[in-house]
Give the backbone structure.
Amino acid sequence: MTNLPPKKSRSTAVLTTFIGLEQEARKAQNHQELAFLIVNKTHQLLPYAQAFFWRYSETGKVVVEAVSGVAKYEPNAPHLQWVRALVKTQASDLETAGVLRVIEHVTLLDDADQAQQKLAAEQVLWAPMPGPDGKLLGGLLMFRSEPFKQHEMVLLERLMGAYGHAWAALQRAGGKSSGLLKLSRSGKLRAALAAAIIGAMFLPVHISVLAPAEVTATDPLVVSAPSAGVVKKIAVKPNQAVKKGDLLFSLDDADVRSKYEVARKEAALARADYHRAAQKAFGDMDSRAQLKLLDARVKQKQLEVNYLGDLLNRIEVRAEQNGVAVFNDVNDWIGKPVDVGQKVMVLADPDHAELEALMRVGDTISLRNGNPVKLFLNTDPTRPLPASVYRVSYDATEGPDGSLGFTVKARFDEDVALPRIGLKGTAKLYGDKVTLFYYLMRRPIATLRQTLGL
């Protein structure tokens, strides 16, 4: 029997976690740091599967500021549009907008995608974040399969109040900085400041963009279905190391095996008919005339046996080389029908890894072979890995989140310890040098040209 810790010890641990989160919130240096804390570290006090932190902008619009477990996300993704719509619906009821509660009824958008449907199936907790004056500044939307408990909601309500105080304090600190503008009343100071700003606009800087990235294999071996059928078993796990000859997956052999047994019996029967006719052929002209026909039938049946036997031998697919089996999930394939040549997984050599990034169409910059890249892995964002571009796709392709972008391939530097294949993160892609003015105004200029056609 497992010895459970005393109830007092568990209460002490929860209280320690609560105090620690409150202290971290008060020490946050900016709103981005505080938003990351709210959406990710609150999990230490209240476990959840997914959380979205939202706030009101200066114009009163609902903005999804951070998403748990995601360093970079597409603001216009369908499920984030649904989250904003859900927040607007809940916040419109002034009587309950500031009350922490479980949302009973969740309405999907008309074109709900799989991500929306998955989130809507979970328990949804509405956790508002009030300011010191009681005004609603933002809040958390939490999703998980298990029901939320009353004592968890009580602690979370107190913690959201602490978050609101910290958020408001950062807003006041930002407002105080505007007092420095009083120093610019002197004409000479204003002129010097303007000259410094104008001069800084001509400083050369490397233009750069951020792009979602993944560590992929260099020249992986594609493992595909040898014949049409249904996947019966996946013998390996995602990212498992395998050796040459190890079983990777197998197809259901019931149909092929039954046809093989029938073909064997028919071939045996054809051979028996041929031998009988051959024995009678010495004295029977009719039997002698049938020998060629029976011989052709024997060869035909034997070909069927050989073909079906070859299919049976290919039911089990084994590794042709050493490597790592790369695929998403075993349950995605069990019982799934596949066609001949359909890719099931790839075998990758862990000693030959590279970086693959998706440079979104709206962020496109000119990249050349040899341009530097830095990869910030989600597992270790404080230690970037240097790499160099060696190929950029000519056509834009659709990424996992539905956005269009250009695929950028980069090789890691020789002195870099290669990360594990399959790890994801954010890549910073560096282009040519441009002026600071162009670096800052590139997006506004592009938007102006698209709008006005200049």
In short: The chain has nine helices and 20 strands. Residues 285-313 form the longest helix (29 residues). The CA atoms of residues 323 and 349 lie 5 Å apart.
